[in-house]
Write a structure and sequence with these properties.
Layout (H helix, E strand, L loop, with lengths): L4 H9 L6 H8 L5 H17 L2 E5 L1 E5 L27 H13 L4 E5 L8 H14 L4 E4 L2 H11 L3 H11 L1 E4 L9 H7 L6 H13 L4 E7 L5 H18 L2 E8 L6 H4 L9 H14 L10 H12 L6 E4 L5 H6 L9 H10 L3 E5 L7
Parallel strand pairs: 1-8, 1-9, 2-3, 3-4, 4-5, 6-7
């Protein structure tokens, strides 16, 4: 006879490690049990990190939207001959890095399409020039898919590629390009990206070389609750082995300007129920993660505040710009003032604290 929901939640709070099947059950909840799940996740959040809400003062720098992948869920990428394509040269990137440094950011996040002409030297040069202009910042960039492409283009191993990026000034790795780590789903939503095994191998390699990284999940497109649970299980297995993930960043699919939605291959994004359950179940399932980020640029500030009541403890970054989200249809995804973050945190009786990329104190 299956456990009642409350028994399962009580056992989880007492130390039971959720199975994938149990995670699917929680993710599939459609009644007031949603609030019981969120409450359990919130209790676990309080035990782990207390009543602090964190954020990082960062800036996104968009390098180019020219991309070899052109994933169906993305409204940002363009072909090289597209009239909306752009490519910033080194001088432009240096200027953006100087602007970021003047804003006293502690992290610069380089976001880019995977340009078909890029090789390892391209990434080394990009990271090096930002490091020269803003030497005190953490340069947060280079997804496993980008590393796989750079290594292939330059005829080196991915391990060597990571080592060269570290030498150039790479601070932390982006755990993006994960989307859903189920190959049947990847063949629909991002067929030109690296497969699951490659993503896992490269992120594990990076952790073993001493790099910390985020972990992400992009949910609400073509995947099932079982696929979401499988993805979380893969992340938990990696964390068991390496301890290299700083946080989970759930990324709710923004559908408006995407080919996946236009072709009828995905719904109109995740629902509010799915958002809350993803945050909460991630907190309960990922017992070896301390931090669950709520991406205000993906779900809006009101849902972000609710996410902080469902297991979340971090509001992500100030960003200053997020063309990836706005091009996909996200409204107001460019900048969130820390004063507004403080209003959100204090409305929940919590304290806002600025952090570094790796959750150190500023």
């Amino acid at each position: 006879m299956p456990y009642s929901l409350h028994t399962l939640l009580d056992d989880t709070l007492a130390g039971h490690r959720l199975t994938e099947e149990e995670a699917v059950r929680l993710l599939s909840t459609r009644d007031r049990g949603i609030f019981a799940i969120a409450a359990a996740a919130d209790e676990l959040r309080e035990r782990k990190v207390g009543n602090v809400v964190t954020y990082v003062r960062n800036q996104n720098i968009h390098v180019t939207n020219i991309c070899k992948n052109l994933c169906g869920f993305c409204g940002f990428g363009r072909r090289a001959d597209d009239p909306e394509a752009f490519y910033d040269d080194t001088d432009a990137i240096r200027e953006k890095a100087r602007t970021a440094a003047a804003r006293n950011v502690t992290e610069i996040c380089l976001l880019s399409g995977v340009h078909p002409d890029y090789n390892l030297d391209s990434y080394v040069d990009l990271i090096s020039c930002v490091h020269e202009e803003a030497p005190g910042t953490d340069i947060h960039t280079a997804s496993p898919d980008e590393i796989a492409w750079a290594a292939k283009q330059s005829g080196v191993s991915t391990k060597e590629a990571i080592e060269r990026l570290i030498d150039a000034g790479l601070g932390t790795l982006q755990g993006t390009a994960a989307e859903i780590l189920v190959d049947d789903v990847r063949r629909v939503i991002c067929p030109n990206k690296c497969d699951t095994a490659t993503w896992v191998r490269i992120i594990t390699e990076a952790h073993r070389l001493g790099l910390r990284s985020t972990a992400t999940i992009m949910y609400g497109s073509s995947e099932s609750a079982g696929d979401r649970a499988r993805h979380l299980a893969i992340l938990r297995e990696i964390q068991d082995e390496t301890g290299g993930f700083t946080e989970l960043v759930p990324l709710s699919f923004l559908h408006e300007n995407t080919a996946l939605y236009r072709k009828g291959l995905a719904p109109a994004g995740a629902t509010g129920r799915e958002d809350l359950l993803l945050f909460a179940v991630a907190r309960l399932f990922l017992d070896n993660f301390d931090h669950i980020q709520i991406s205000w640029g993906k779900v809006g500030t009101k849902m972000a505040e609710l996410g902080l009541l469902a297991g979340g403890d971090d509001l992500g970054g100030t960003m200053f710009c997020d063309d990836v989200s706005t091009d996909a249809g996200g409204e107001g995804a460019d900048y969130l003032d820390p004063a507004e973050m403080r209003r959100i945190a204090e409305d929940l009786g919590r304290t806002l604290r600025q952090r570094t990329t790796t959750y150190g104190t500023v």
